[in-house]
Amino acid sequence: MNPRPTLLAVAHGTRSAAGQRQIRDLCAAVARRRPDLDVRLSYADVQQPRIGAVVPGVRDAVVVPLLLSAGYHVRVDIGDAVRGTGIPVTAPLGPDDVLLESLTRHLAAPARGGEQKAKPDEADAVVLAAAGSSDPAWRESVHALAARIPGGAHVAYAAGAESRVADVVADLRRRGARRIAIAAYLLADGLFYRTLHRAGADTVTPPLCLDPAVAGLVLRRYESALLTSAPAGM
């Protein structure tokens, strides 16, 4: 009997127990949707097992980066791990319309306790908060995503020296904004996500991986790889 094909998910890794649980729950949701797949979770940084340690033990696999950009971890950590194996690597989860729709939906959703969250057409300002990267293509994709949020959004980063989230929020306050919503372009809870709650905005959207639609996006990435380079036996 042939072993099940493997969807090898690769997350960044985090020290946050909540973030670790959220990523495991995302992979569990993927596995429930596709019981014919062996869904395995590995990491590019921080946590174990690392992608390089898992790849030698899998067959008929597709690597799906649970990342929002094709940055260093995709090019180097994942690229080095699969080099010479023939295992295909899909595009990362972002940018994608599923994530844009999730951000927009949560910006408009009621907050806990009945209080209404800021909506894109009601807030004085919406800030799209991303992790930060020196990759020009990644930064360009974040700005393009911000322009597609209804009403537009200001881009800010949770790390790096430029356009820090707290600084952008403070500047918007000085310019007269009274109600500011942060659209968190982050997949899971962790250090970066928690800084958004200390940035001075009125609301922050939840981590993207909590949206059930993201499990479907992971599977679409997997299936897209099969259309172009299916491993032997699939």
UniProtKB/TrEMBL annotation:
Protein name: Sirohydrochlorin ferrochelatase
InterPro entries tied to this protein: CbiX-like, Sirohydro_Cobaltochel/CbiX
Signal peptide: none
Keyword Membrane on entry: no
Record flagged with keyword Lyase: yes
Key words of the record: Lyase, Metal-binding
Annotated GO MF terms: lyase activity; metal ion binding
Cross-referenced Pfam families: CbiX
